[in-house]
Specification:
Structural class: alpha/beta
Low-confidence stretches: none
Helix content: 25-40%
Radius of gyration: 21 Å
Number of strands: 11
Largest sheet: 5 strands, mixed
Oligomer: single chain
Strand content: 25-35%
Number of helices: 9
Number of domains: 2
Strand order of the largest sheet: 2-4-1-5-6
């Protein structure tokens, strides 16, 4: 995930997320390999970013770019049709120093913004501290963007997987390998909060902590998953 930022003292480039759940799993399994997730910070890289972190004092610099884009579209459309009224309401919203991602819009209005792709329609985290703690900032951006991690864990490897909130287990299986999604039969789930003193998945099964789920199961943050499949 790329995070564009402005007005803050942050490291440019890739940053390993110090994932507390991954650390717990590493301590539990002592795996041969650990695969963490890296976020990429891009100074003022708003166009290429998946999400944006802005110092409140610099937020207007971002909003002005969107205001200019919307004003040009309104000028080209003319009159009040073609969504002009909605675009004017977007301008009024941003004039209140708020990014468009915080505006309540209908599905049809969302399509208009998806087409226009204003920068502040992306998830925008607004901060007051110019020197935020990097891990905390990452967690706040994730919450704003509606993304999370699930995990696979065992002696060979402990791996953090990045996914949108609300993803079903088949989608998550496909993140690991397309064959797992294609031949999905069942998923086996243990959430990190339920793992307790279990030493491994077999121990979790014996203690009744693991559960079998079907393809419509929505994966939760902190779920450790194992896929049963047949291709």
């Amino acid at each position: 995930m790329k995070i564009g930022y402005g007005g803050m003292e942050l490291p440019e480039g890739k940053v390993r997320y110090a994932d507390p759940i991954l650390k717990r799993l590493e301590e539990k399994f002592e795996p041969k390999k650990v695969s963490p997730y890296f976020f990429e910070f891009v100074l003022e890289g708003y166009d290429v970013a998946d999400a944006i972190a802005m110092l409140r004092d610099k937020l207007l610099d971002l909003l002005v770019l969107d205001m200019e884009k919307l004003e040009r579209r309104i000028e080209r459309l003319g009159g009040e049709g073609g969504g002009v009224g909605f675009l004017r309401s977007c301008l009024a919203f941003m004039e209140g120093d708020s990014p468009l991602c915080d505006m309540e819009v209908s599905a049809e209005e969302g399509k208009i913004l998806n087409e226009l792709a204003p920068l502040s329609w992306k998830p925008v985290l607004v901060l007051d501290d110019p020197s935020p703690e990097i891990n905390k900032l990452i967690e706040q951006v994730m919450e704003k963007a509606g993304v999370m991690f699930f995990y696979t864990a065992g002696k060979p490897e402990v791996h953090a997987w990045f996914i949108r909130e609300g993803s079903d287990i088949v989608t998550c299986a496909g993140k690991i390998h397309t064959d797992l999604a294609r031949g999905f039969i069942k998923g086996e789930i243990v959430n990190i909060d339920d793992y307790g003193e279990a030493h491994n998945l077999n121990d979790a099964r014996a203690k009744g902590l693991a559960k079998l789920v079907d393809r419509d199961y929505v994966v939760r943050h902190g779920d450790i998953i194992e896929i049963r499949f047949n291709v």
